[in-house]
Design a protein that fits this description.
Blueprint (H helix, E strand, L loop, with lengths): L6 H10 L15 H16 L3 E4 L5 E5 L6 E7 L12 H16 L8 E6 L12 H7 L17 H7 L16 E9 L4 H4 L4 E7 L1 E10 L3 E2 L11 H17 L4 E11 L5 E2 L2 E10 L2 H22 L2 E10 L2 E2 L2 H13 L4 E6 L5 H4 L5 E6 L15 H18 L9 E2 L5 E2 L1
Parallel strand pairs: 3-4, 3-5, 5-15, 6-14
Antiparallel strand pairs: 1-2, 2-4, 6-13, 6-15, 7-11, 7-12, 8-10, 9-11, 16-17
Helix pairs in contact: 1-3, 3-11, 7-8, 9-11
Bound molecules: zinc ion.
Length: 421
């Protein structure tokens, strides 16, 4: 059995056992394992001398109240996808925790408050409510989600209640007015860093993503007696959507499209499917391409429905715009990487992150550490201890610097073309 080499590595192991079975990790919002992970983190933060609690949206917030002015916020998320790995989100939270531990150990006195957050439900696994916690933290109105249901028909509001939370108090989680800037370390979740032998990457921007539930309805009927030309087959319409959407993404630059789930009703071998429900995800990092694929998707669905004589309903389940990271804050990351002679590049993120929610309100930046073979959202997700260390080192140095001086003024280019702050 290899010995753990540092506190961070010990924490990675310890946290992976909460909701983990030695292979995969399953921690979803509003479940006992996620609550247990949050409580564990609160204890670690308190042991380091921070004020810490779980807020009304299920976020863990730790506060090192020192100095004056707005806080530097560091963090990520603790929830996972179904059968997820040990590093997505967790490594960002634990690196932030290790940053606090090292600064304390050094006797550092922050000139401004240093806060740590583990945002709840970044993945949106159970209710399709991705970035729920960070949205609550920045004060986004989430009241429309009250009756959102999971696969078992439990509403979000009921799920929160069963864990001791109250849907109506979510707005109390808004604390963005205390924050000066946000930094997030995350695993890359792709193969580019490994391919290019990079130690670290500075995230230039985060893709826009939109999730949909498309319901196609035709006519359930007998598979043997209904003439082929008279069928209104919802699955045939759904199949056209799958293929046309794939074609649309293939022929556009820098666009992805995915149909990850289809339910067919009534589901009999000898029955023409009367209903098909598709769950889709489309992404693009530039505004024009993002708008193009989202409008194309609607055309594709309506065209497939028309061709098969179906009705179509398109519901948007989640939506996040393409987001650039803050130039000034990213430059601080780059300077520290240069000073440490690390191999780094700027990379765009094809995954969504809490940083894209925070970026709408405060200067935000992200750094990536490598993912072995580019694998993530799977048990094989791995970042070696040697690959973790440069990330923690840079995070610690940048936090030290930001807590000792002014936070760079917001400077963010708008992926939609103009200049935005
Ligand atoms: Zn993540």
């Amino acid at each position: 059995v290899p010995m753990s080499t540092s506190k961070l590595d010990e924490w990675v192991d310890e946290l992976s056992r909460i909701g983990g079975d030695g292979r995969a990790v399953n921690r979803f919002a509003w479940t006992p394992h996620q609550i247990q992970a949050c409580d564990w983190l609160v204890r670690q933060l308190q042991e380091l001398g921070l004020e810490a609690e779980v807020d009304s949206a299920g976020n863990v917030v730790g506060r090192w109240q020192s100095g004056e002015g707005k806080a530097v916020l560091i963090g990520s998320h603790l929830d996972t996808v179904p059968d997820g790995g040990r590093f997505d989100g967790a490594l960002g939270v634990l690196s932030a925790l290790e940053t606090v531990r090292r600064l304390k150990e050094d006797g550092f006195e922050p000139g401004r408050p240093l806060w740590l957050a583990a945002f709840n439900d970044e993945e949106g696994t159970r209710f399709g409510t991705s970035m729920f916690g960070s949205e609550a933290f920045v004060g986004t109105d989430l009241s429309h989600l009250e009756d959102r249901v999971d696969r078992d028909g439990t509403t979000l509001s009921e799920a929160m209640k069963s864990c001791g939370f109250d849907f109506d108090t979510i707005p109390r989680a808004c604390r963005i007015e205390h924050i000066g800037c946000y930094l997030e370390l995350h695993i890359e979740q792709g193969p580019r860093m490994q391919d290019r032998n990079l130690d670290l990457a500075v995230v230039s921007g985060i893709v826009g993503l939109r999730g949909y539930r498309v319901t196609l309805e035709g006519q359930t009927n007998h598979a043997g007696t209904t003439p082929m030309r008279q069928r209104r087959d919802a699955l045939v319409g759904a199949s056209q959507v799958v293929l046309a959407l794939r074609q649309a993404a293939l022929t556009a630059a820098d666009v992805t499209a995915n149909v990850g789930r289809i339910q067919v009703e009534p589901g009999g071998t000898n029955v023409v499917p009367g209903k098909a429900v598709l769950h889709l995800d489309v992404r693009a990092s530039a505004g024009p391409q993002f708008r193009q694929i989202t409008s194309k998707l609607e055309d594709i669905v309506h065209e497939a429905a028309r061709a098969e004589g179906l009705t179509a309903d398109i519901a948007v389940i989640y939506a996040h715009e393409p987001t650039a990271m803050d130039e000034g804050l990213s430059s601080v990351l780059r300077e520290e990487m240069e000073r440490s002679a690390l191999a780094w590049e700027d990379l765009a993120s094809g995954a969504g992150h809490d940083a894209q929610v925070l970026a709408k309100h405060v200067p935000s930046a992200m750094l990536f550490v490598p993912s072995r073979d580019g694998i993530s959202h799977a048990p094989a997700e791995y970042t070696t201890p040697e690959q973790r260390e440069p990330g923690v080192k840079i995070l610690t140095e940048v936090v030290r610097r930001l807590c000792s001086s002014d936070i760079p003024r917001a400077r963010r280019s708008d992926p939609n073309g103009g200049e935005a702050v």
